[in-house]
């Protein structure tokens, strides 16, 4: 089971979220911290691992996430040369989060696992140069053809 809590910038109260998988539930646990950034990644690796046209992710400090239970990891090297470790539920295969080698203190939580994914507000689109030509992106979000340098 994965447990996490976070506060989005600009919110006046802590938001604790739970998530749901095919095989079970995430259980929320009190935590501290704030989301560092959120966005949609259109790189080919994210397309392949999500089975969709992009992966929406909410990046939070790893120290604010409490993990209990088993997680299976798959490690790869992205086209950028960045090492990526993706955490999956060993029972149903749902992708839970990713750890990026260039952002060692952050976890990219997969927003599709939230019970209320409407809480997710993407701030940007990255790797738009790899996006499917037919994929509609929110025109109001900043676009980056490759990676975005996130604060650490």
Short descriptors:
Metal Binding Protein, Guanine Nucleotide Exchange Factor, Chain A; 11 strands; disordered N terminus
Oligomer: single chain
Total helices: the number is 1
Structural class: mainly beta
Q: Mean pLDDT score, rounded?
A: 76
Shape: globular
Beta content: 25-35%
Tell me the name of the CATH class.
Mainly Beta
Tally of distinct domains:
1
Major sheet details: 8 strands, mixed
Helix content: under 10%
Examine the secondary-structure arrangement and name the CATH architecture.
Answer: Beta Complex
Radius of gyration over all CA atoms, rounded: 15 Å
Number of DSSP-assigned strands: 11
Q: Could you give the order of strands across the largest sheet?
A: 6-7-8-9-4-3-10-11
According to CATH, what is the topology?
Answer: Metal Binding Protein, Guanine Nucleotide Exchange Factor, Chain A
Query: Alpha-carbon distance between the termini?
Result: 27 Å
Order of helices and strands: EEEHEEEEEEEE
Q: In terms of per-residue confidence, which ranges show pLDDT below 50 for 5 or more consecutive residues?
A: 1-16, 22-30
Family: Belongs to the Gfa family.
GO molecular function: carbon-sulfur lyase activity; metal ion binding
Protein name: GFA family protein
Keywords: Lyase, Metal-binding, Zinc
């Amino acid at each position: 089971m994965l447990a996490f809590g976070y506060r989005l910038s600009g919110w006046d109260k802590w938001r604790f979220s739970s998530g749901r998988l095919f095989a079970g539930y995430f259980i929320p646990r009190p935590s501290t911290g704030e989301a560092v950034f959120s966005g949609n990644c259109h790189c080919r690796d994210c397309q392949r691992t999500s089975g969709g046209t992009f992966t929406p992710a909410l990046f939070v400090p790893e120290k604010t996430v409490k993990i209990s239970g088993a997680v299976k990891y798959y490690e790869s090297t992205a086209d950028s040369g960045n090492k990526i470790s993706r955490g999956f539920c060993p029972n149903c295969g749902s992708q839970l989060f990713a750890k990026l080698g260039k952002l060692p203190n952050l976890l990219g939580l997969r927003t599709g696992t939230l019970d209320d994914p409407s809480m997710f507000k993407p701030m940007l689109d990255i790797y738009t140069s790899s996006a499917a030509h037919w994929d509609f992106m929110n025109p109001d979000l900043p676009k980056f053809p490759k990676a975005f340098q996130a604060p650490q």
